[in-house]
Amino acid sequence: MNAQEFKELGEKLRDAVPPLDQPELNRDLWPAMLKKMSDPRVRVPWFDWLLAALAATVLIFFPGAIPALLYHL
Amino acid sequence: MDVLQRFAAGDLDAFESLFRQHQSAVYRWIVRIVRDPATAEDLTVETFWRVYRAHARFHPGGNFEGWLRRIGTNAALDHLRSTRKHAPLPDDLPADPLPDAAEQKESRSAIRSALASLTPRLRIVVQLGLIEEESYRAIGDALGISEGAVKLRMFRAVRILRKKLQQWEVKP
After folding, report:
1. pLDDT in tens, B94-104
2. Which residues of A touch B114 (CB under 8 A)?
3. Closest chain A CA to residue B88
4. Which of A6, B82, B96, B107 could form a disulfide with B101 if both were Cys (CB 3.0 to 4.6 A apart)?
5. Dihedral-angle region of residue A17 (phi above 0 means left; psi in -120 to 50 means alpha; beta otherwise)
6. DSSP codes of every residue in B47-88
7. In whole angstroms, what is the distance from residue B147 CA to residue B123 CA?
């Protein structure tokens, strides 16, 4: 791809998705920040739950793996 | 003790001062990535929440703005990853009065779809580099990668975009 084609693709992209012209924040977010800090809900991704369940299953069925796990921690 | 030292020591007043000083800049950067004002506001708060929790890891002599931008970029990337399958790019175009408006609209829609189909780590490079025309260095700093790595991602993204647009018979 040459520079001209690259430039043309850039123009097409900017035509389809126009650049944001000086987007400004319209309100102070400090109150929202304080709210978040006072209510820090921890969201655990589903993948982490899956990993935890897998680890628990392995440890229940293979308790001999516990020393190996502790060694690697 | 200056504000960065007090922040690193866990001082809430120093954090508030930094928040008020930098919230607009963080918002402006994030909204260019997610292209939705409400989401960008949430992600700005999320960014500062991550910053606050990581205050002990910040070195007061370090580049706070750079650190902040990198955390904000990561928060925006996490958002793009979590919404990739559900949220196309917002259709924020004004009505087009030209006679071939339907064809143009279709072409723009195809381009937006192609862009939305990129993986978040490629899409962010295209949005910031080709659409917002940020420098490769600024993008690399925000992503924590070298300029060369940004160019490589851009090359891969452009190749994928061209291929998709050719498949859909949109002249890239």
Report:
1. 444 455 677 77
2. none
3. A17
4. B96
5. beta
6. HHHHHHHTGGG--TTS-HHHHHHHHHHHHHHHHHHHHTTT-P
7. 16
The reply to whether ipTM tops 0.90 is no
pLDDT per residue as tens digits for the range B123-167: 999 999 999 999 999 999 999 999 999 999 999 999 999 898 888
Residue in chain A lying closest to B112 (CA):
A16
CB distance B162–A1 less than 8 Å?
A: yes
User: Considering CB atoms only, which of A5, A20, A32 is closest to B31?
Assistant: A20
Q: Which residue has the higher pLDDT, B97 or B169?
A: B169
Shortest distance, CA B112 to any CA of chain A (angstroms): 6
Question: Which of A7, A17, A34, A47 to mutate against chain B (most B CBs within 10 Å)?
Answer: A17
Handedness of CA B112, B116, B119, B120 (dihedral sign): positive
Q: Return the amino acid letter for B106.
A: E
CB neighbours of B107 closer than 8 A, spacing ≥ 6?
A12, A16, B170
pLDDT confidence tier of residue B92, bands split at 50, 70 and 90: low
The packing angle between helices B37-53 and A30-38, to 10°, is 50
Question: Which is more confidently placed, B104 or A61?
Answer: A61
Q: What's the mean per-residue pLDDT of chain B?
A: 88
Q: Are A33 and B49 in contact (CB under 8 A)?
A: yes
